[in-house]
Fold this protein.
Amino acid sequence: MLFPGYLFLQTEIDAELIAKQLRNLFRDRLKYKNVYSILHYGSNHDNVVLNKNELSFWERLFDDEYCVSGSTGFIEGDRIKVMSGALQGYENTIKKINRHKREVTIEIELMGRQHEVRLMLEIIRKMD
């Protein structure tokens, strides 16, 4: 649900082979009307694998069942400090906060593009 309309695969298959197989599979777009493109880096259509920084971010963000746990934190002055949960250590990625909905919008880079994602953050106190 973080990226509606996107499908991510985790596989041990070689990146070039999976890119070739995906291109062959989706070549006939009339058959797969809901598939628009395969994400890749730059002009190299075989480069469909997350880079090391992105992979590290994803591995830390998701739990073993590929879910993002909620986070808790507090506001001190104009800074947010996350005490627990998936966002701990990623305070600098927070772009917006909605305390009433208990959510934040973070900005992350994926396949060379910036994306905004909403995650759960409960602010338990505000210190001035």
